[in-house]
Amino acid sequence: MSRVVMVTGVARYLGARFARLLGDDPAVGRVVGVDAIPPMHDLGHCEFVRADIRNPVVAKVIAGAKVDTVVHMNVLATPLDAGGRAPQKEINVIGTMQLLAACQKSSTVERLVVKSSTTVYGASPRDPAMFTEDMAPKELPRSGYAKDSVEVEAYVRGFSRRRPDVAVTTLRFANFIGPTVRTPLTEYFTLPVLPVVLGHDARLQFVHEDDGLAALRTATLEDRPGTYNVAGEGILMLSQAGRRAGRPLLPLPGLVSATVGGLLRRAKIADFSPEQVQFLTYGRGVDTIRMRERLGFEPKHTTMHAFDSFADARCRDGLLDRDRVASAKRMLVGAVRRVVSTDA
Fold first, then answer.
1. Which residues contact 114 (CB under 8 A, 6 or more apart)?
2. CB neighbourhood size of 248 (10 A)
3. Does the pLDDT of residue 154 top 80, yes or no?
4. Cross-strand partners of 206
5. Residue 86: predicted pLDDT
């Protein structure tokens, strides 16, 4: 029987692309896209319903369409997406609670797929080389999107205990990257000079945007309950990524890096939240054996290939002219001097 799928978060790029992908799939009978604002991207055959998942009205959407599969993609990674940190947390946490409450009351929902993130593992100097899905973080994330993701997963586990008849799949994605997706990390790598933390070279993993959507499709259409890390094979060091993108590095002391990050964030040049600085200091690695063996998914792109597809599309064609690099360096060095003089 063809599935009726509801996708949350279709106003943003990845949500819209996934809804369009499902709408073209013959195994899916109907796709209902839900968001509080109209989508800017083409949804194809997906039906759009304007609804805020923070509002109990989402239960009426599920009941009216007789939804059997819910794909939750409405967890915002940056405050800029929501208009500030407070609304971001409200959408991520309160929105998830309301959505799960609606699913719990539903008599038609059989499957729940949650787009989560490897940020739940945090980033610290005590981390293992690779996190498996059963490992806990050495240091729990204390703020921002990472903390929200931890709370979202906790509520999802509670829902799974209350509704054991619903197959729940949680996909913990490494950073999405590719030629078209825009994230805080892709915008960081488009800076003419990359501020990095002195004495550290973070370990990075990526998932190509096409592979990420393919993994979501597998979880949506196949019966694969469980929690899975999703990432391309291999690790890329931050210094290697900078070279592959043609970006010179500017090593800064940790405290100064955080301060410069704040300047970049306030100037809306790049999102340098505290957890982002922590990640770019220590990085993170995740084990993907369960993804291959139990989810039955094999990414087409390695971490390096995924990054190169981004670099080829966004970091070429003369963006690194000498004057732009020199100007960026002067801005960053000036910020460092101001911080040092203030501390003195």
1. 72, 152, 153, 156, 168, 169, 170, 171
2. 13
3. yes
4. 175
5. 85
For 82-105, how does the pLDDT look when each residue is reduced to its tens digit (9 = 90+)? 677 788 888 899 999 999 999 999
Burial class (CB in 10 A: 0-12, 13-18, 19+), 234: middle
Residue with tokens 């501020």: 195
Say what the pTM is. Answer: 0.89
Tokens of 45: 């055959």
DSSP string, 285-309: -B--HHIIIII----SS-HHHHHHH
Where do the H-state alpha helices sit in the chain? Answer: 13-23, 58-65, 79-82, 85-89, 95-105, 144-162, 184-189, 209-221, 238-245, 254-266, 274-282, 289-290, 303-314, 322-343
CA distance 202 to 192: 19
What is d(CA 79, CA 12) in angstroms, rounded to the nearest whole number?
Answer: 14
User: In angstroms, rounded to a whole number, what is the distance separating the alpha carbons of residues 240 and 244?
Assistant: 6
User: Distance of alpha carbon 336 from its chain centroid, rounded?
Assistant: 30
Q: What domains can you pick out in the chain, each with its CATH number?
A: 3-177+206-233+285-307 (3.40.50.720)
How far apart are the C-alpha atoms of 137 and 213, rounded to whole Å? 26
Side chain identity at residue 36, one-letter code: A
3-state secondary structure of 251: strand
Q: How far is CA 33 from CA 51, 73, 99, in A?
A: 9, 11, 14
- Is the CB of residue 32 less than 8 Å from the CB of residue 65? yes
Q: What is the pLDDT of residues 32-73, one digit of tens each?
A: 999 999 998 999 999 999 999 999 999 999 999 999 999 999
